[in-house]
Design a protein that fits this description.
The chain is of the alpha+beta class. 26% of the residues lie in helices and 24% in strands. It has seven helices and 16 strands. It is flat. The N and C termini lie far apart (65 Å).
Length: 354
């Protein structure tokens, strides 16, 4: 599969590729695809430049008429091939009585034809025909025809009606990542990402990207105490000075920026990219937006919790040494609120209670 940059620039090279392909003779037929289609050799740019243009129209010769007839027969052949293909597809799915060869029943999982919308194509930066045309797994909820060929499907909370021609049994053991083509996975400074500690982890951290240099990114980790991801409010994490622990409370010191809980790691696919979702949407209230929550859930990931109760949070913090070596340190959440800069916060709470 082409990268986003390759796809965006592919149209610049396509005319040259097409011209070379259509004008060069085939080793099998001895003629070019253009000549096979139109009955005449393709003219090159050089041929067009040296040819003397006519001052007025010319009558069609017998050769010209024969060429037009050849082209008409070629288009007729293409139409016949399209009809034959449709018959083959029908024969693969239906028997001689017009009934489905595969007996679907209510509750079965299937993939079904649902081309991408204009919005999805625009988001992906690709033509709709270059994006996956089938979706799944959908679940059959009703049978709509007596010959078992039309069904009602439920997919992501929406209902679809499909004929067996546009359905296939769903046999995958994993949920497909349907959003990969329609999401911008480019990591940029100032954006938020969901990242893992290692390749086998299923719990992700939310982090703000501070910088991107080559394929190394520096991030500021955020955390939440809430189990329910839909209600979780995220906030930045800070080092507790002199320890290997972090807190959600910002230190009241002059060097607070130096105490940000940061990490540096590679986003190269060759070295194991830990970013499971780039450009995570964070609302003004500090919540992950619904679309990103659905994507992460579909991928099988859940979030780390920083709370004292039911907490899962720990972090394998990575950073680069001046010599370019990667070091790793395991960080833990602080469970007590009586350390250094938190003393002021605790005192304020006590005064409010009084």
């Amino acid at each position: 599969m082409m990268t986003k940059q390759q796809y965006e620039n592919f149209h610049l090279h396509l005319p040259l590729i097409a011209a070379a392909w259509n004008s060069l003779p085939s080793a099998t037929t001895g003629i070019s695809p253009f000549e096979a289609e139109h009955g005449m050799k393709a003219r090159s740019i050089a041929d067009s430049l040296v040819e003397n243009p006519t001052t007025e129209g010319m009558e069609a010769s017998a050769d010209d008429l024969a060429t037009i007839a050849t082209s008409a027969r070629a288009f007729h052949k293409i139409a016949a091939q399209s009809m034959a293909l449709a018959k083959v597809l029908s024969a693969e799915k239906l028997n001689s009585k017009g009934k489905s060869k595969h007996l679907y029943k209510v509750g079965d999982k299937v993939t079904f034809y649902r081309p991408p919308s204009e919005k999805e194509a625009k988001t992906a930066g690709r033509k709709a025909k270059h994006i996956m045309q089938h979706r799944g797994p959908a679940v059959i909820t009703h049978e709509l025809s007596p010959n078992h060929t039309t069904f009602r499907l439920k997919y992501k909370g929406r209902t679809y009606e499909r004929n067996v021609i546009n359905m296939t049994p769903y046999n995958s053991d994993e949920t497909p990542h349907l959003y990969e083509l329609t999401l911008d996975q480019t990591v940029t400074a100032g954006s938020f990402i969901a990242a893992l500690d290692d390749d086998e982890d299923k719990l992700y951290h939310i982090a703000e990207v501070i910088s991107v240099i080559n394929e190394q990114i520096k991030v500021h980790y955020w955390g939440t105490t809430t189990n329910n991801i839909a209600q979780a409010k995220w906030g930045p994490l800070w080092f507790v000075q002199g320890t290997n622990k972090v807190s959600r409370i910002k230190p009241k010191t002059t060097n607070a920026d130096k105490l940000k809980c940061t990490g540096t790691f590679s986003i190269s696919n060759d070295k194991g990219n830990l970013v499971v979702l780039a450009n995570v949407g964070i609302t003004s209230g500090g919540k992950v937006n619904a679309k990103c929550r659905d994507i992460l859930k579909e991928k099988g990931y859940t979030h780390h919790k920083t709370g004292v109760h039911n907490k899962t949070w720990q972090l394998k913090r990575r950073w680069l040494t001046p010599k370019g070596k990667t070091k790793c340190q395991t960080l833990m959440m602080r469970t007590k609120r009586t350390h250094n800069s938190d003393m002021t916060t605790v005192a304020k709470r006590k005064r409010k209670r009084k």
